[in-house]
């Protein structure tokens, strides 16, 4: 191969640039930190294994280096906290912060300005607890009606077996309807434009996250700046959804204000979150201005981010888990038939509580969802020392090693990756109950406040679907879940529905 004198400076420059980047990005680990897993490739570190072989790679690291341990991914050191260390992260809520850790990789605050604001997020949690969880029995009948409407619309008549593709989030609308009923009331929860806005909101936002974080090798904030450039130049993939909600919500709010003024003490407040907000001092108003609408819609979309997308994915995954296991069909179906006869088709919270086999099945589906690592937290203190004596510095991202928690042999036996449909039933663990071996909804004070509503909704949906349809996979076998990097997703093969004979 011939090299001219002109090429020598270029080669030297590339070499120098590579060395400088390597020197700048070389991880600097103090002596007392968790062990750093060795890697072969400078700059790249463990990134390829993390993206394409996370389950096996991290299991080997855990076995060899204990808990917690450090790896080098996308230009930064992250700490993996598994079944022993993760509990410390969730316990020390002032030291470890979730929102601070996700701002670079999930910059939703660029379009929902109050997303991540501590005061707003605290208000969201309070609203869920007071406005939804505490009143869940009052919502049950309405949720059931919305679910049945959605099932008839999204699945419909299956006199002949019907294959329904799930890759495009068909069940997002199924979940969006009851959520819309609870959030914005019965006046507009039947509006298909509103349902589409709710169902597609988070999917459209994640379109800006399609660019792999290659620039994070330089610095995570460089990647964030690049992927959010379109937003700063006016492109807003979710702006249309906010406009839709504002359009239909404004007349509802204006009518309620008029009715309050006309009827006074005789005003009968509707049961929904917008009414709950109208009665709070921070949202009290006499005129529905555009700014007021923006604030209340932004608040509502924060709910949507944390509810519809996640709930619909878990419902879809649970349907696949059921469809691929014919040995469970009769047992779980018989429970639903018995409960349906008891309630004469009108479920109450007490009847939902009696779905103990279905609840246990749903819990196991959650545990086997397939996500390897998730829920990052940033260390905000100058340093933090784990109980095993290992210390991490301020700013370190600590990832929750979910598979180490959900597949530990102490809790789930010698074959923890097997599907144990009645493990929760035998051990008196409900699907919404968090414990040290089940982090689907987080842990401790950080546990998801909407988990009761989500499980309530999924169980009701599963109950109605199982009662009305035989469900199979196209292959007749258990379909393999999809994984994007470390994040699990439901299979995409589709589900076959066929009417049950009444």
From TrEMBL:
It holds the Pfam family p450. The keyword Nucleus does not apply. It comes from Diversispora epigaea. The keyword Nucleotide-binding does not apply. It comes from the Eukaryota. Belongs to the cytochrome P450 family. CDD domains: CYP503A1-like. Heme binds at residue 448. Its cofactor is heme. Keywords: Heme, Iron, Membrane, Metal-binding, Monooxygenase, Oxidoreductase, Transmembrane, Transmembrane helix. One of its GO terms (molecular function) is iron ion binding. This is Cytochrome P450. InterPro entries: Cyt_P450 (IPR001128), Cyt_P450_CS (IPR017972), Cyt_P450_E_grp-IV (IPR002403), Cyt_P450_sf (IPR036396). GO terms for cellular component: membrane. The chain crosses the membrane at residues 6-24. It is found in: Membrane.
């Amino acid at each position: 191969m011939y090299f001219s004198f002109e090429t020598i400076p270029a080669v030297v420059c590339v070499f120098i640039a590579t060395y400088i980047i390597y020197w700048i990005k070389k991880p600097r680990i103090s002596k007392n930190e968790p062990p750093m897993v060795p890697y072969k490739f400078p700059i790249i570190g463990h990134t390829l294994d993390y993206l394409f072989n996370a389950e096996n790679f991290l299991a080997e690291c855990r076995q060899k280096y204990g808990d917690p341990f450090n790896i080098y991914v996308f230009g930064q050191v992250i700490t993996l906290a598994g079944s022993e260390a993760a509990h410390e992260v969730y316990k020390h809520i002032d030291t470890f912060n979730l929102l601070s850790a996700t701002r670079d990789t999930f910059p939703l605050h660029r379009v929902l300005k109050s997303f991540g604001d501590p005061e707003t997020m605290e208000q969201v949690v309070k609203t869920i607890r007071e406005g939804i969880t505490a009143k869940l029995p009052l919502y049950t009948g309405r949720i059931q009606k919305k679910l049945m409407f959605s099932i008839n619309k999204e699945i419909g008549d299956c006199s002949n077996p019907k294959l329904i593709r799930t890759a495009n989030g068909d069940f997002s609308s199924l979940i969006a309807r009851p959520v819309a009923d609870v959030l914005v009331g019965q006046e507009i929860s039947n509006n298909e434009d509103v349902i589409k806005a709710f169902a597609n909101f988070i999917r459209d936002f994640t379109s800006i996250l399609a660019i792999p974080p290659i620039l994070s090798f330089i610095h995570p904030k460089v990647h964030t700046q690049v992927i959010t450039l379109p937003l700063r130049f006016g492109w807003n993939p979710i702006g249309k959804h906010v406009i839709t909600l504002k359009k239909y919500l404004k007349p509802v709010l204006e009518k309620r204000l008029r009715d309050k003024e006309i009827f006074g003490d005789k005003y009968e407040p509707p049961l929904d979150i917008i009414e709950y907000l109208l009665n709070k001092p921070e949202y009290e108003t006499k005129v529905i201005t555009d700014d007021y609408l923006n604030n209340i819609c932004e608040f509502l979309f924060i709910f949507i981010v944390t509810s519809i997308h996640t709930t619909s994915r878990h419902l879809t995954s649970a349907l696949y888990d059921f469809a691929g296991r014919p040995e469970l069909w009769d047992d779980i179906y018989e429970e639903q038939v018995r409960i349906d006869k008891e309630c004469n088709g009108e479920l109450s919270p007490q009847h939902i509580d009696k779905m103990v086999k279905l609840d246990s099945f749903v819990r196991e589906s959650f545990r086997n969802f397939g996500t390897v690592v998730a829920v990052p937290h940033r260390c905000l203190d100058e340093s933090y020392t784990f109980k095993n004596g290992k210390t991490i510095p301020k700013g370190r991202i600590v990832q929750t090693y979910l598979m180490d928690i959900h597949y530990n042999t102490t809790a789930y036996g010698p074959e923890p990756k097997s599907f144990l449909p009645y493990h929760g039933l035998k051990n008196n663990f409900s699907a919404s109950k968090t414990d040290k071996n089940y982090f689907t909804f987080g842990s401790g004070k950080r546990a998801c406040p909407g988990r009761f509503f989500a499980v309530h909704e999924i169980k009701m949906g599963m109950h109605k679907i199982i009662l009305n349809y035989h469900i199979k996979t196209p292959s007749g076998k258990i379909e393999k879940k999809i994984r994007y990097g470390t994040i699990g997703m439901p299979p995409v093969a589709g589900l076959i529905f066929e009417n049950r004979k009444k």
